[in-house]
Amino acid sequence: MVADVTGVTKQLSTAGKAGVLDELLLSVVDETLKQVFREAGAKVIYDYLGNKFHLEREEIAKKPEVFSVGLEELLVSARPVIENMIIKSLYSKLELKFAKKKGYAFSDYLKELREKCGC
Asked: What's the per-residue H, E or C state across 24-68?
């Protein structure tokens, strides 16, 4: 299920910012994985992360480093491409300009977003 992202920027400026950002991230992860790997492939990835890394879908926002390690192990060289797609989409939905930063990991971009929105 994909969350409705209409008015996300306005929602982030109100109470519950962290929850809104987390839900948006999960929605973008779902969209990206399903776009690239279809429904069945996304399920395989979530199952792998759950079984091998004890990372449930709902925990991705709180444990982005574990998510990255799991993708790295499963997808090898495709991991940075998938993470980049997720981050670009997330920035776009938040109506923010994305700029790739040397040395930044997936979790660094999420940390920066949390600081920008105060959540």
From this structure: HHHHHHHHHHHHHHHHHHHHHHHHHHHHHHCCCHHHCCCCHHHHH
- How many residues are there in the chain? 119
Number of structural domains found in the chain: 1
Q: What is the pLDDT of residues 51-90, one digit of tens each?
A: 999 999 999 999 999 999 999 999 999 999 999 999 999 9
- Distance in angstroms (rounded) separating the CA atoms of residues 82 and 118: 26
Residue 3 lies in a domain: no
Per cent of the chain over pLDDT 90 is: 77
Count the neighbouring beta carbons within 10 Å of the beta carbon of residue 82. 19
Look up the pTM and report it.
Answer: 0.83
